[in-house]
Amino acid sequence: MSDTNAERKMTEREVIAFFDEAVNYGYIYNVYQPKVNHVTGRMIGAEALMRLKHPLYGLQMPADFIPFFEKNDLVFSADLVVCENVCKFLRKCIDEGVPVVPISVNMSRYDVYNHDYVEQVEAIRKEYDIPVKYIHIEITETSAIGGMELMTDVLAKFHELGYKVEMDDFGSGYSSLNILKDLNVDVIKLDLNFLSGDIGGRGGAILSSIVQMTKWLNTPVVAEGVETREQAEYMKSIGCNYIQGYYYSKPLDEPDFISKLNVLDHEPLSSDSELTYTIKSGRFWDPKSMETLLFNNMVGPAAIITYKDGKAEFVRVNEKYIKEIGMNLTAKEMLDIDLLDSLDQDSKAIFKDALDLAIRTEDEVTCEYRRDICSKICGEEKVLIRSYIRMIGQADDRYLFYGMVRNITADRRRYEALEESEKKFRIASEQNNTYAWEYEISTHRMRPCFRCMRDLGLPELIENYPQPVFDSGLFPMDYYDLYMDWMKQLEDGVGELEAIIPLTSDRIPFHVRYTTEYDENGRPLKAYGSATLVENNR
Ligand code: C2E
Ligand code: CA
Ligand code: CA
Question: Which residue, by CA, sits nearest to atom 13 of ligand 1?
């Protein structure tokens, strides 16, 4: 039987009329889709998906008949057929020595309204004598809508019997985070189709924070609907290795699935506990561990921080973070730093305010603060940090943040030095035959100092610099090419320039210099120009 399209879609009436026959003669059957660990290539489980095949109308897909089942209270019986098919299949595999993996079945919310679904599933499992670890139940967020108590009840019953429960289609609803807090599921399934197309943008950011949050909750995540290698690689890069989707396999009928079970190695679905960290855990700092590899794949210097009762702690930081902040510090030294204690009073307040704001707004918050770091080489040192903070999870009064940082100490120092020298410069220029100006590189605007305006009659602002100063003869035309080349070099980010240039029609030699100021991304912003008279006696 191939998993292909219908000859023709069946009407509701036809589906219902066909139901009993379908149950009794095997026209409701299962296909299986593997769940694979993308890092090891091993199968960790599979999902059973229902199919309906009519002798005349052909294969019907769930979207075309499950709603009819649900509407007519038939889905309960159909889901038990799927469950029985799974148990039969597993029994056969176990008896024949085919290595098996846990198989999940889909539970509809209609299965638990006025039905003893849990008891029936358990009875079927016992009848076929299948170890409970091989049956997982997939529930959806929407099953909880309007019936949270019923759902917690069902979940508790399954857990008591030893079943693992997976949260299907996570992220499709509105209250995802709250649901996770209330329903303590064992696996989370994230469907990429809900974030379609946008994996590099906002969708990617959402995915990434969901994955981070699930790590914190200690729950493994399976990414569903993964169709391409790029998607699989992306999920891996944000720390989600478990993949279900066409990229690895379409849903397979029993014979094909048995072949897959035979060729693919298996491994248990790990609770990912090795992926959560405490600051003291040695493995986290092991540069060769999988955890470190994953976390370091995320772009930029990043840290995960928890915050509770006014106490902020690192959960983990990546290598780039240590490099950015710690400079000479080793990971081990970094580990011993108490996040808030390394800040002075002012900085502590700034940082706490930022955390509180991030909690309130659930948006990214930027703050700048100073912190001490001590390194073996430099001793105590103060660095200026710009943090971008976002809350990614909450449980009771504990909050989890994702923080990116930039060490702006050097930028700020350069800026202050520039400011300082400019000030000195302005004072000196008054006594020292020096003319100064500011040149805005991107806009080609030049602002002369007071002295230039007074002595040379320049306006406050010169547009399209340097053309006008050549036109006016302040700069001689034979230096035009050199000077234009300078402007180009400034645009390209050169830090300093200097030359002796004869100025005015009297061709008086001046020492002309430029010093560049950069923005936080290292792009050239402004250049400070000066011209100092070359004294004859020097
Ligand atoms: P679901 O539980 O989210 O199942 C995953 C669906 O995504 C399946 O569609 C699967 O074939 C499809 N899929 C898998 N990989 C990819 C991929 O890479 N790209 C895309 N675009 N799709 C992929 P299917 O089998 O048509 O099932 C649709 C839905 O019908 C299921 O969604 C589930 O809600 C429901 N369903 C299926 N079987 C059962 C069942 O036995 N009982 C109940 N109650 N509902 C079922
Ligand atoms: Ca499912
Ligand atoms: Ca799903």
Answer: 225
Residue with tokens 């002295």: 451
- Name, of 188-197, 324-333, 384-393, the range with top average pLDDT: 384-393
Domain end position, chosen among 381, 407, 433: 407
Q: 217 and 79, same structural domain?
A: yes
pLDDT at residue 277 greater than cutoff 80: no
- Is 249 found in the same domain as 314? no
pTM: 0.59
Out of 95-109, 189-203, 242-256, pick the least confident: 189-203
For residues 332 and 257, state if they share a domain. Answer: no
Q: Best substitution site from 35, 49, 194 to test ligand 1's pocket, by max atoms within 8 Å of Cβ?
A: 49
Q: From the CA of 171, how far away is ligand 3's center (Å)?
A: 10
Domain co-membership, 436 together with 322: no
- Write out pLDDT tens, residues 210-242: 776 676 666 889 999 999 998 898 888 777 889
How buried is residue 423: exposed, middle or buried, by Cβ count under 10 Å (0-12/13-18/19+)?
A: exposed
Residue 438 lies in a domain: yes
Domain for residue 270, yes or no?
Answer: no
Is the pLDDT score of 299 beyond 60? no
CA of residue 276 to ligand 2 center, whole Å: 26
**Residue spans of alpha helices (H) in 288-408:** 290-297, 319-321, 331-335, 345-361
Query: 79: Cβ below 6 Å to ligand 1?
Result: yes
Cite the DSSP H helix spans in 322-400: 331-335, 345-361
Q: Which ligand lies nearest the alpha carbon of 31?
A: 1
Confidence of residue 279 (pLDDT cuts 50, 70, 90): very low
The token pair at 59 is 């294969």
User: 460 and 318, same structural domain?
Assistant: no
Q: What is the mean pLDDT of residues 57-75?
A: 96
Give the Å distance between the CA of 51 and the centre of ligand 3. Answer: 16
Residues 364 and 491 in one domain: no
Atom of ligand 1 nearest to the CA of 49: 38
Q: Which domain holds residue 196?
A: 12-263
CATH number of the domain enclosing 221: 3.20.20.450
Which domain-ending residue is among 215, 233, 263? 263
CATH number assigned to the domain comprising residue 483: 3.30.450.20
Which ligand sits closest to the CA of 142? 1
The sign of the CA dihedral 128, 30, 230, 198 is negative
d(CA 364, CA 240): 23
Q: Give dist(CA 103, CA 84) in Å, integer.
A: 12
Specify the number of domains making up the chain: 3
Q: Is residue 385 part of a domain?
A: yes
Question: Is the CB of residue 138 less than 8 Å from the CB of residue 155?
Answer: no
For ligand 1, atom 37, which residue shows the shortest CA distance? 49
Residue 3 domain-assigned (yes or no): no
Highest mean pLDDT among 2-6, 186-190, 434-438: 186-190
**Does 171 sit in the ligand 1 pocket, CB within 6 Å?**
no
